[in-house]
Amino acid sequence: MATGRVPNTDILNVAATGVEIDDRGFVKTDEYLRTNVAGIWALGDIVGKYLLKHSANLEAAYATNNIFNPDNLVAVNYHAMPHAVFASPQVASVGLTEQELEGRGFPYVSATYNYSDTAYGSSIEDNDGFVKVMAEPESGEIWGCHIIGTDAATPVQEAANAMRLRLPVDAITQSIYVHPALPEVVQRAFGQLPLSAA
Length: 198
Prior knowledge:
Layout: H1 53-68, E1 83-85, E2 90-95, H2 98-104, E3 109-114, H3 119-123, E4 130-135, E5 142-149, H4 156-164, H5 170-173, H6 184-191
Antiparallel strand pairs: 1-2, 2-5, 3-4, 4-5
């Protein structure tokens, strides 16, 4: 059962420091991870942005830079933050969902590819696993990649890396993939997208 998490700023008596918290109890920071009190920075779950260890690792790198280089502050870039649920089967995702794209009115194309349609997926007998991908039809900008299946957290990294660097679908479809290996399912999903000719 997943019931969510709440901050413990009340138990820590953060209010005694003068640091502002939001209505949910998370510490308020600016884009550089500074709080409203000079010399106090916050990162990780306590800021409530993404409650993920890899998000905290990202924030730690930015906070370190910003604390030790106050004349060269860099705003945290959360673009293409992947996440995964280590259940059976695994669920992994990066970017926008189809519903979010529709809600925002973004143009997109989508494709789905089954694990079992690859040599590796067939060999491990994952008959339920699949990858769903979305991209902008003209530019090929990757909007999202969502995977349910064996080791989903591993192949989703293909899309997360391309998205983080704002590379188009071609960065994945034109790469050479080891065969047979699970990441092929991601490449094949992107290869199914009906993109407009550039």
